[in-house]
Design goal:
With 584 residues, the protein is of the alpha/beta class. It has 20 helices and 10 strands. The strands form 2 sheets. It has a 6-stranded mixed beta sheet with strand order 6-7-8-3-9-10, with helices on both faces.
């Protein structure tokens, strides 16, 4: 979408749906702004009366009345400023929280291929850095700019009321001020977008190195990575310097032109006072309003740079919000048939990963899997075994062919219904940075403590969990870094057992276990597989010899199907795999 052609303020207007629920808070802030601005604008006339009638006219009563009014006005200004600052800051925090929630809700629904094509650090930068920038703009800078703009317009009106000739002198400089604002504003916005992208690059690089710290240290690459990170930081700093230079130039030019106009106006006003064409109080009031206008122009021009920065951040956020997931539930999903003789069916399925469109991952795959059947999928690396699981979970959709669950095309079912039928035990166990309760209960969030413990016991994980420092309350660290590979895998298996799905997908579920743990977990899996349809990816054929059927895959195609004994007689590829393993 062509957001870049829009002005900064027009881009920020796309945040209006997030402001709309709090329109009355916004109205309150505007009312407080009107109160403070209106009261401040009366101060100029008070100064005029104070000088002309109080000082020059030597009227003590007038002096007292004017000073009392000015004191009351200051109280109104202080109270209004408090109300405006509180409501606007609250609004910035609230809108930013809602925006972060909306973006996160969007991110977790996007198709997996989106995360293949976009770096996680870049996405995290949008969720954190960009939203923090908007929080500053909405909760502070934009309010300041609006106040300055109101004071600038109000001051101009009062200038005309006070003295038309001097006002025309001030207005003659306005076009000279607006031109640099427009020119530098565009440059600042472009550089702001570039700056945000470079900051995201820095975060992405650092995140990847931290995640792979053991690899970095084992290859003694600390110095190399330090130098590489330094280059990324300097690249971001170079872009930031260009942005700062443009903003600084804008502010300096605006201030120079504004105060040049004020100096000229003061000379003309002083000349008129000396010749009796205007009073000293009138000149003082005019100077007061002129300073309000000049400071308003300078403030608005300064905040415009922040607005352009925010526009760049908003563009990035709106792009993410507008991203459509390729995998979605149908608008009118069909109900899931609960019982069917054929639990899963692939009908002439062809698939290429979006990131590798020229490389077939599956070619003309057709197979039927009966309800309650255990089927092992074997073959060399890259044969398409894991791809098959990803299609069954509908992480991707095939370009051709159909996948049916209980006789219904899974694309016609809601994602919740389809995925609720399946529990996955992946080859690489993924744990969350939380305690054991959370990681096992992820399979069934409403499970009781007793159910969680029963699942852990079934996965032969209870014994080592109870030996952890805080048992089930033990914090496991990022991706379970405090556990061994076998322990992590048993936590994952406990999660799948707790899920109690009708279909089990086991992707090398015992590959990370030692001999003793593998025996225990295999017993747990055998029990979990009872009365369930199970698909097992296995490189070690000894673990799947007793499956009801074995599917042999190679280069994305099914080359043979049968029992272990049948395939030993009829499948050259299976014979080759078996001979190699059993000889070892």
């Amino acid at each position: 979408m062509a957001i870049s052609s829009k002005s900064g303020f027009k881009t920020l207007l796309q945040l209006w749906p997030f402001l709309l629920p709090y329109k009355w808070v916004l109205v309150g802030a505007l009312a407080a702004l009107a109160l403070t601005a209106g009261t401040t604008l009366t101060m100029g006339k008070s100064i005029q009366v104070l000088i002309d009638q109080g000082f020059i006219g030597e009227s003590l009563d007038q002096l007292n009345q004017t000073l009392i009014w000015m004191f009351v006005a200051v109280i109104f200004i202080a109270g209004g400023t408090f109300a405006r600052f509180y409501t606007v800051t609250w609004l910035g925090e609230r809108v930013t929280a809602d925006l972060r929630q909306a973006i996160f809700s969007k991110i977790i629904t996007l198709h997996p291929s989106y995360f293949e094509e976009n770096r996680s650090g870049e996405i995290m930068s949008r969720l954190t850095t960009d939203t923090t920038l908007l929080q500053s703009i909405i909760g502070s800078s934009l309010s300041f700019a609006l106040r300055s703009f109101v004071m600038m317009v109000g001051g101009l009106v009062m200038l005309f009321i006070t003295n038309i000739k001097l006002t025309l002198i001030v207005l003659a400089v306005v076009p000279l001020v607006l031109i640099p604002i427009m020119v530098f504003g565009r440059r600042v916005r472009t550089l702001s977008r570039k700056s945000q992208d470079s900051i995201a690059d820095v975060g992405t690089y650092a995140g990847e190195i931290i995640q792979q710290i053991k690899t970095v240290q084992s290859y003694r690459h600390e110095s190399f990575e330090e130098a590489a990170f330094s280059r990324e930081v300097e690249k971001a700093f170079t872009v930031a310097k260009q942005r700062i230079l443009q903003r600084s130039s804008l502010i300096a030019i605006v201030i120079l032109l504004s105060f040049t106009a004020i100096g000229t106006m003061l000379w003309v006003g002083g000349y008129d006072v000396m010749h009796g064409n205007m009073t000293g109080g009138e000149l003082a009031a005019f100077v007061f309003y002129a300073l309000l206008v000049a400071s308003g122009v300078a403030s608005v021009s300064e905040v415009l740079g922040e607005v352009q920065r925010a526009a760049g951040a908003t563009e990035r956020l709106i792009e993410l919000m507008d991203e459509e997931s390729l995998i979605q539930s149908p608008k009118a999903p069909q109900p899931l048939i609960t019982e069917h003789a054929i639990h899963l069916e692939l009908d002439d399925v062809n698939f290429q990963y979006p990131s590798r469109p020229d490389t077939p991952a599956l070619s003309h795959v057709s197979v039927q899997i009966k309800t309650g059947e255990s089927v092992a999928i074997v073959g060399p690396s890259g044969a398409g075994k894991s791809t098959l699981f990803e299609l069954l979970l509908r992480f991707y959709d095939p370009q051709q062919g159909q996948i049916r669950l209980n006789g219904t095309d899974i694309k016609a079912l809601s994602l919740d219904d389809a995925r609720h039928q399946i529990a996955l035990v992946p080859q690489q166990p993924i744990l969350f940075s939380s305690d054991v309760w959370h990681n096992i209960r992820y399979g069934k969030p409403d499970a009781t403590d007793e159910q969680v413990k029963a699942a852990a016991k079934a996965a032969y994980a209870l014994e080592f969990i109870e030996k952890l420092p805080q048992g089930f309350d033990s914090y496991l660290g990022e991706n379970g870094v405090r556990l061994s590979g076998g322990q992590k895998q048993r936590i994952i298996i406990a999660r799948a057992i707790l899920n109690d799905a009708n279909i089990l997908l086991l992707d090398e579920a015992t590959s990370a276990l030692d001999g003793e743990s593998e025996f225990k977990v295999q017993q747990a899996l055998d029990k979990a597989m009872e009365n369930r349809t199970t698909l097992i990816i296995a490189h070690r054929l000894s673990t799947v010899k007793n499956a009801d059927r074995l599917i042999v895959m190679d280069h994305g195609e099914i080359v043979d199907i049968g029992t272990h004994m049948d395939l030993m007689q009829t499948s050259p590829l299976y014979q080759k795999l078996a001979e190699r393993q059993f000889e070892d």
